Amino acid sequence: MADIEQTVIDIIRAKAEDHDGTIDRRSVLVELGLDSLDAIEIVFEIETAFSIDVPYSHNDAGPEFETVADVIDAVSTAMAKPSRAVRD
Amino acid sequence: MTRRVAVTGLGIHSAIGSGCDPVAEALASGKSGIATIQAFDPSRLKCPIAAEITDFVPAAGLTRKHLALLDRHAAFAASAAVEAVDNAGADLAGERTAVIIGTGGASLSTMDQEYFRLYGEGATRLHPFTVPRIMANAAASHITIHYGITGPSFTISSACSSGAHAIGLGYQMIQAGLVDRAIVGGAEAGLTYGNLKAWEGLKVMAPHCCRPFSADREGMVMGEGAAVLVLETLAAARDRAGPVRAEIRGFAMTSDAHDPVHPSLAGAKQVLRQCLADADLQAGDIEYINAHGTGTGANDVIEAQAIRGVFGRHNDHLAVSSTKSMHGHTLGAAGAIECVATILALARGFLPPTINFTTADPECALDVVPNQARPSTANLALSTSFAFGGSNAVLALDLDPA
Lengths: 88, 402
Fold this sequence. Notes:
The complex is a heterodimer of chains A (88) and B (402).
Chain A: H1 2-15, H2 36-50, H3 68-80, H4 84-87
Helix pairs in contact in A: 1-2, 1-3
Chain B: E1 5-14, E2 17-18, H1 20-29, E3 34-36, E4 49-51, H2 64-68, H3 72-88, E5 97-102, H4 108-120, H5 130-134, H6 138-147, E6 153-156, H7 162-175, E7 181-188, H8 193-200, E8 225-233, H9 234-239, E9 246-255, H10 265-279, E10 288-290, H11 297-311, E11 319-321, H12 324-327, H13 334-347, E12 350-351, E13 374-375, E14 380-386, E15 391-398
Parallel strand pairs in B: 5-6, 5-7, 10-11, 10-14
Antiparallel strand pairs in B: 1-2, 1-8, 1-9, 3-4, 7-8, 9-15, 12-13, 14-15
Helix pairs in contact in B: 3-6, 7-13, 10-11
């Protein structure tokens, strides 16, 4: 799990170029200066890094990623699905 | 009274330089931008050379977030637009400005790269910005957003005349009073393995060198880049004491209605004559032509015959060069890059050369300014574009408008 957390934080940090401070599970995405286009790129890079599908759509209300922890939890849930090896 | 149209801003990225001053110096010294392709391993190409931009540094103000949404051609255009707008010094925001960018293949770089990942590497997902990168109006759209321009914006695609058509249409829209200002130009980034293989199939590519109008010419060499111009009414430019770099004196566009890839002598003559008429100039007034001059067997002979036919006895006083010998054939950007090259060279008092010239071809009996730039006081010039599909476009430029 530590690896997932660190990889997710590294991907988010690369997009949060206007944020100087630390990024941890409690960090709020909008407070890191991230917008909806950043979110799409972050989801893509996470999907590529872990070979998973993150259930994220511009067209519905959820899941809402408010904090870094929300993203890490979504990745952990997707990683636990047995079918992911077949999909990718 | 007809509204006259001034060029007040110029921006350029090409294989012979990025920015007006480096490009002007390259044109003056006859620098070649053509070399073995570096972007990918070209060993499976029969013609492994191109005029490639190997050191692209986007203009200040274009952030990672901007660039993430742009194909390479659109990034060239966006960056050239920053230079052009900066040196025009005009306020371009609002609904009285148009943005028109020409491109032949638009987003070939993104398509080649992303679809290779899908078909060739078995990827299951593409970058989420693939669609905004691929949309053909991406460059024009980006420029409107960047500068708060709410007037008309669109992309023109007419193969190798795209850039000239974009400039000419901006000129006509200002002349007609539809808008007061326009950001116009052309952009292309098609140096991909897939696109170059496609061009090889046409048997028009040069394996070693681009030498337009030379008897030993061996074909065209593809280039990439972008050039962008800021146009406004001459009256407004003078009122605000803006930098009038040239007047777009005239423009004409025609279609050959003849053949998809073979040029037409009648079509080339017609568009030259129509441009002179639109500019209210006589053949004897023109001192320099920046030729389409691709370096293919067919283009150069037909273009030379057309020029000789239209200019007649005035050919003795007419210089005609192909700067494609230096910056390659940039396809949809060509008309814009060559228009900017003409303005840069004439403003600095020289005619840009046709480099790599070795042997006169009796079928191309023109003064092609071989190999070395030549001092000149020429102010009236044409820039010609003859595209596949038979779409022709010619711009008339006056460096010292009355």
